[in-house]
Amino acid sequence: SNETKEESSHSNSDVSSPKWPFIILPPQAQVHGSIPGQIADQTRARRKEDQLQNMIRCVLFLLEETSVQGEPEQSSPSTTTTLVDFGGGSGHLAIPLALLLPHCRVIVVDLSNRSLELLHEKARLFKTNEEATTASPLPTSTKLRASTIPNL
């Protein structure tokens, strides 16, 4: 099919890939899955991924180039960019943003305590003793922080 040809022509880190950024994120950050807070229905999960992909692209576009490409150690607390996800629920948008933009602070606001509990449960799944490496879509960052997502 044409869709298969189009998808295979993109690299995993290509921002224009139909599956970006979910193809490069760890399983805990995926929309589809069996972890509490993930969507079990694959069709519904794909629709959600499409929405999130557009939102993530908008955030990347709106951030200044230096903010996106800068290393976390280079920014002081007074110059750290803060992203607020209002109605962020269990973190379908916030977790990928925190992983893709480790130098940005990501805050989730939600009225549902259960959704926020799910967000914290998913974030705890990233707690490891080492950093996970991945092919990043951002040229200067090749590591995902995996010790409980410190910027989330």
Topology:
Layout: H1 2-8, H2 42-62, H3 65-69, E1 82-86, H4 94-100, E2 105-109, H5 113-124, E3 132-133, E4 143-144
Structural features, described:
By secondary structure, the protein is α+β, with helices and mostly antiparallel strands. Helices cover 34% and strands 9% of the residues. It has 5 helices and 4 strands; from the N terminus they run H-H-H-E-H-E-H-E-E. Helix 4 links the parallel strand 1 (82-86) and strand 2 (105-109). It is globular and about 40 Å long. The N and C termini lie far apart (39 Å). The relative contact order is 0.16.
List keywords for this structure.
alpha+beta, two-stranded parallel sheet, disordered N terminus, globular, 5 helices, 152 residues, 4 strands, two-stranded antiparallel ribbon
> What is the overall silhouette?
globular
Helix/strand class: alpha+beta
Q: What is the residue-averaged pLDDT?
A: 74
Number of helices: 5
Beta-strand fraction estimate = 5-15%
Terminal Cα span: 39 Å
SSE pattern = HHHEHEHEE
Report on the biggest sheet: 2 strands, parallel
Q: What is the number of E strands?
A: 4
* Spatial ordering of strands, largest sheet: 1-2
C-alpha-based Rg, rounded:
15 Å
Q: Ranges with pLDDT <50 over ≥5 residues?
A: 1-12, 128-147
Question: Helix amount, in percent?
Answer: 25-40%
Compact overview of the structure:
With 152 residues, the chain is α+β, with helices and mostly antiparallel strands. Helix content is 34%, strand content 9%.
